[in-house]
Design a protein that fits this description.
Layout (H helix, E strand, L loop, with lengths): L3 H16 L9 E4 L5 E5 L2 E9 L2 E6 L9 E5 L2 E6 L15 E4 L2 E6 L2 E9 L2 E6 L2 H4 L4 E5 L2 E6 L6
Antiparallel strand pairs: 1-2, 2-3, 3-4, 4-5, 5-6, 7-8, 8-9, 9-10, 10-11, 11-12
Length: about 160
């Protein structure tokens, strides 16, 4: 249980970190969720906004229902503090180097399979398995700014 002294000490640490611009770490990305909210992507994991206090935003891992207790504090889009360790593998991969462009379009090589571009909506791209027509494969991938944010890995072939 936190006492008033512990809370004050915690606030002092956070306030000191906010005043020091070197306390934040680069590498975070904000994207829009399907429901119109905002998600934070950091080191292959996604976070949902839990609380807003002025310019401070508190984020929790999206796998919180699976027991993951990682939290992130940001201040004006800069990462200030990370607490905890993930109890699951990372979910997102940077895939720009796996996108192959040809004179007939482009395709994505991911998870040992080839995916064709189905639809592009701004910086989001939906990809479907290249064997979809031949085998009826339902596997699909969604990328946002070259980061895989969703996949359904239901291949019915090798």
């Amino acid at each position: 249980m936190r006492t008033k002294d512990n809370l004050r000490r915690h606030d002092r640490v956070v306030n000191d970190a906010i005043r020091r611009p070197t306390a934040h770490v680069d590498g975070i990305q904000f994207i829009d969720s399907r429901r119109g909210g905002q998600l934070l992507l950091y080191q292959g994991n996604s976070f949902t906004r839990n609380k807003v206090c002025g310019k401070r935003q508190y984020w929790v891992c999206k796998d919180r229902s699976g027991g993951c207790r990682v939290t992130i504090l940001t201040y004006e889009s800069s990462l200030i503090k990370i607490r905890g360790e993930h109890n699951h593998p990372t979910k997102f991969r940077y895939v720009e180097e796996f996108i192959v462009k040809t004179n007939r379009g482009c395709f994505l090589m991911a998870y040992d399979h080839k995916f064709h571009k189905k639809r592009e909506r701004g910086s989001r791209v939906d990809w479907t398995c290249s064997r979809r027509k031949a085998t009826g494969c339902r596997a699909a991938v969604t990328t946002h700014d070259h980061i895989i944010i969703r996949r359904t890995n239901k291949h019915n072939h090798r």
